[in-house]
């Protein structure tokens, strides 16, 4: 009996050793594939990267066309509504003022929703549209409100250009609530866009869990590895990710709401967690929408408005001037910029001064650089996605041989 028991243990040990060896070879292969994909960037392999980008774009367009064909009823209804609106838009009548109002509001909301989506969805990166667009817009409205003594800016030219209303400023008539109310639509639409941008990780993880297939996403692979290595994790990043995962999994709606209501770079993990554990769609999206479009946006709005309130800005400029040696030279362009903005507010159609302030020039160049980086990152990400398709095809062919 003892001899039989020993003979049974030996095959089990061999099988276990073989499984470990297979797991190790799979991890090595994945790491090698990942390094190969990460080398697919414009500054290393420009021709191949652009070629793969174009091929991946064609594949995505084909997949989109198939999805639209599968939902052709919804697409047809959408086209009918667009046709009716086009007829109403081109037909003269008393309804034109309402059509133009709806068009203006729709385009304005779509603009901020689109920027919000770009902020949270970037195929590997995100365009920081709050810092580049929404934050400066709120700051401009705040500075104008304190200078004009009112938020009733004439429309047009607002929102394309802010001009003080006729009648002069009334000291003390501006409050935080009035400024927050003025920018509430833009902020909430931007927040709603960021919530929509969090849906792809959720759907990807949910589809992978339901189908049992390996998802085509590195974030999900990292998520599964993190769950496997959860015991004994010591580094801060892993513990932070585990904290988000546990909060979302155990607390549910209010856990998702808490994660979405604060600036949280790990929120992608919350979407993957909800998809992996099959959290209902409206539980995830409802909590994300409330957290991002209402709670977090009001916190961010309040921070920007307080930072750019009149007395805070004046104190900041005076503090810059108090810097030893460099203070006066640094203070001058800030003072000139603020003075130029004040002059614009009191002159409708006012143009920028001939000697453009260097602060405006620097900001424009920063925006240009960040947008270029965003576009380049999308090209790289699409090329890497196509490279992953080729790797998966190669591995499947190797298995069949």
TrEMBL record:
The lineage of its organism: Eukaryota, Metazoa, Chordata, Craniata, Vertebrata. Keywords: Membrane, Transmembrane, Transmembrane helix. Residues 16-32 have a biased composition (Basic and acidic residues). The gene is VMP1. This is Vacuole membrane protein 1. One of its GO terms (biological process) is lipoprotein transport. Residues 1-32 are annotated as: Disordered. The chain crosses the membrane at residues 74-91, 111-134, 247-263, 269-290, 302-323, 366-387.
């Amino acid at each position: 009996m003892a001899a039989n028991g020993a003979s049974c243990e030996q095959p089990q040990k061999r099988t276990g050793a073989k499984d470990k060896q297979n797991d190790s070879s799979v991890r090595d292969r994945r790491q090698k594939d990942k390094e190969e994909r990460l080398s697919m960037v414009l500054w290393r392999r420009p021709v191949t990267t652009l070629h793969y980008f174009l091929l991946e774009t064609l594949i995505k367009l084909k997949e989109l066309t198939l999805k639209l064909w599968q939902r052709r009823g919804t697409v047809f209804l959408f086209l009918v509504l667009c046709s009716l609106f086009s007829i109403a838009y081109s037909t003269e009548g008393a309804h034109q003022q309402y059509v133009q109002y709806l068009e203006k509001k729709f385009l304005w909301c779509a603009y901020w929703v689109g920027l919000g989506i770009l902020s949270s969805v970037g195929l590997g990166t995100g365009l920081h549209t709050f810092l580049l667009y929404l934050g400066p817009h709120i700051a401009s409205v705040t500075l104008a409100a304190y200078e004009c003594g009112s938020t009733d800016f004439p429309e047009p030219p607002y929102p394309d250009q802010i001009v003080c209303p006729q009648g002069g400023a009334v000291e003390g008539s501006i409050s935080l609530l009035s400024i927050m109310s003025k920018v509430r639509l833009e902020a909430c639409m931007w927040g709603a866009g960021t919530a929509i941008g969090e849906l792809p990780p959720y759907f990807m993880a949910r589809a992978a869990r339901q189908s049992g297939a390996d998802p085509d996403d590195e974030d999900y692979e990292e998520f599964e590895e993190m769950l496997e290595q959860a015991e004994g994790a010591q580094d801060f990043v892993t513990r932070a990710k585990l904290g988000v995962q546990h909060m979302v999994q155990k607390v549910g709606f209010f856990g998702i709401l808490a994660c979405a209501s604060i600036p949280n770079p790990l929120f992608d993990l919350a979407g993957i967690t909800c998809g992996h554990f099959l959290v209902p769609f409206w539980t995830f999206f409802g909590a994300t929408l409330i957290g991002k479009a209402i709670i977090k946006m009001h916190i961010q709005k309040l921070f920007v408005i307080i930072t750019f309130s009149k007395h805070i800005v004046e104190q900041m400029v005076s503090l810059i001037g108090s810097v030893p040696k460099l203070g006066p030279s640094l203070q001058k362009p800030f003072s000139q910029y603020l003075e130029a903005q004040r002059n614009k507010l009191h002159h409708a159609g006012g143009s920028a001064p001939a000697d453009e302030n260097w602060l405006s020039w620097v900001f424009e160049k920063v925006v240009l650089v960040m947008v270029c980086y965003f576009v380049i990152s999308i090209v790289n990400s699409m090329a890497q996605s196509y490279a992953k398709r080729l790797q998966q095809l190669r591995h499947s062919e190797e298995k069949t041989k």
